[in-house]
Amino acid sequence: MMEVRLITGLMATWLLSACTGRDGVVPVIPEPARVHFFIGKTQVEDPAGAEYKESALFGKEAYRIDISRNRIVVTAGTDAGRFYADQTLLQLYEVYGAGQVPCCRIEDAPRYSWRSFMLDESRHFFGEEYVLRTLDLMARYKLNKFHWHLTDTDGWRLEINAFPELTRVGSVGNHTDIEAPAAFYTQEQVRRIIAYAAERQIEVIPEVDMPGHATAAIRAYPALGGGFHPDYPNFTYNIGLEETCSFLETVLDEVAALFPGRYIHLGGDEVSYGWSAWDDCPEILALMEREGLHDKAAVCAFFLGRMARYILNIGKIPVVWCDAQEMGLDEKEVTVAWWRHDREDLLARCLEAGLSTVLCPRLPLYFDYVQSPDHVEGAKWRKTESSDLEDLYGFPDNRASFPADISSIIGLSAHLWTERIETPERADFMTWPRMLALAETSWTLPERKEYALFLDRLPDQLAYLSSRHVYYYHPLAPDSTPEPPMPVRYHQPTNH
Ligand code: TNX
Fold first, then answer.
1. Domain containing 275 — which CATH number?
2. What is the CATH number of the domain that holds 49?
3. C-beta of residue 254 within 8 angstroms of C-beta of residue 159
4. Are residues 86 and 138 in the same domain?
């Protein structure tokens, strides 16, 4: 149902130089889809009328704002639309000052429905306060999915009632200190965070990575381990063991009950790092024989297929990393996250199969890659290449080599992997201001994006971020916020 909200009082000013009626831009990130300045009226007629309903911009997250001299009219069909209208108005007030916003009509809706940020809390743990602030900031910039990477090699961070050892043992340590005290989220905390996110129109997507990246879980339940590999000890589960599969299904049941969102991420990445250990694993060999699986990739695809169907049966949608497609997962109902920027063939495979696909290529969307060649603590592709803000801003439209039919791309996701990020200060430094470019490029249509204008609008947003104590990288004045170092022990090879 369309709803109209009026805000009255002295709301706006007539923008003298632009009051003849023209399309333009407003200093808001992300830039709205359409802005039309007009000579101020005291009355806006028929705000929910036929013209708006027929507008191409109408959609689940769409809204319209009419700002005239004495009042503001907000029109939206959903809570999300109303929420996003508020975010736009807040930024307008901040930049122009109350009563000084130019009279205009703003019609807005996003380009992509999936506008996501991922935080890895396994490698290092940041805690509830940091997550809540992240959600606040994501909401302000209209990002709507928080992908929470809660299990991996260094720590299991989610309380599971059926298996208390997962957190009692598996949450001890982190990537730089194997003796760091236990750190994890209780289910009560998780419920609080989910509710906080929901109030801000953000869906929380938990990831339970399998069958690789399982070291912390195996530390807690060694019987589930799939063998020893010298470089990646106990990296994979023994998925030939029925006990492992039922363990994981019980974990997924609890996760599904805890997280009300539609998606559960199953991981499925980089299994090959540890799977040579499967060569000596009798249960894996028996599974191969029983199911006629010829190699370890087929074993993995078989297992992920089983888990994906399990998730579908409990009414959720499984998400997997694109490695699953490489290994031969044949399941149409999965959403795939394409992260391997050097493997566009995998992207093409997902798109040809018509799979819902989220783009998250390392370059430009891995926020653990440094933003400037001068930075020394973060990752660099092939040890030299940094990730560029302008490249991110232009993504994905600046990728001429992408397949022609991109209709099954549902959105973008940026990922903060935290092997090289130990403190909130470093997390901020790697995330911002890239998050702003992510927000704009996943919301705003390409014809409305302009990098120079984005940079013009940056100082206002950086000032806001300062007010929230965000330690951002400042691309226009790099000396103002130097790169925070990793602890000395990080640079001692035995520690990671
Ligand atoms: C690849 S992306 C990973 C992560 C690492 C990241 C570091 C993906 C599915 N796996 O486990 O943290 O690279 O950039």
1. 3.20.20.80
2. 3.30.379.10
3. no
4. no
Q: Quote the pLDDT of residue 165.
A: 98
Mean pLDDT per 10-residue section of the chain, whose length is 496 residues: 62 47 84 83 45 60 91 92 97 90 93 98 98 98 98 98 98 96 98 98 98 98 94 96 98 98 98 95 97 98 98 98 97 97 97 97 98 94 94 97 95 98 98 98 96 96 98 96 88 57
Q: Is the CB of 326 under 6 A from ligand 1?
A: no
**Rounded to the nearest 10 degrees, how much is the dihedral formed by the CA atoms of 301, 305, 306, 310?**
150
DSSP annotation of 373 reads T
- Residue 45 is predicted with a pLDDT of 44
Helix (H, G, I), strand (E, B) or coil at 255: helix
Looking at residue 68, its amino acid is S
Tokens at residue 86, please? Answer: 């508020």
Q: Are 57 and 466 in contact (CB under 8 A)?
A: no
To test ligand 1's pocket by mutation, which of 270, 272, 346, 386 has the most ligand atoms within 8 angstroms of CB? 270
Other C-beta atoms lying within 10 Å of the C-beta of residue 447 = 8
- Of ligand 1's atoms, which has the minimum distance to the CA of residue 321? 9
Alpha carbons 97 and 100: distance in angstroms, whole number: 5
pLDDT of the residue at 8: 60
Distance of CA 58 to the CA centre of its chain: 25
Distance CA 209, CA 488 (A): 29
C-alpha dihedral over 198, 203, 208, 210, to 10 degrees?
Answer: 170
| Helical residues (DSSP H) of 157-241, grouped into ranges | 165-168, 187-199, 215-220
For 83, the domain range is 2-108
- DSSP reduced 3-state for 254: helix
How much is the pTM?
Answer: 0.94
Q: Please, which residues bridge with residue 318 across strands? A: 264
Identify whether 487 is part of a domain: no
CA distances from 207 to 146, 256, 321 (A): 11, 11, 11
Is 476 within a domain? no
11 shares its domain with 122: no
Residue at 12 is within a domain: yes
With the most atoms of ligand 1 within 8 angstroms of its CB, the residue from 321, 383, 417 to mutate is 417
Q: Name every residue whose Cβ is closer than 8 Å to that of residue 26 and which is 6 or more positions away in sequence.
A: 32, 35, 88, 92, 102, 104, 106
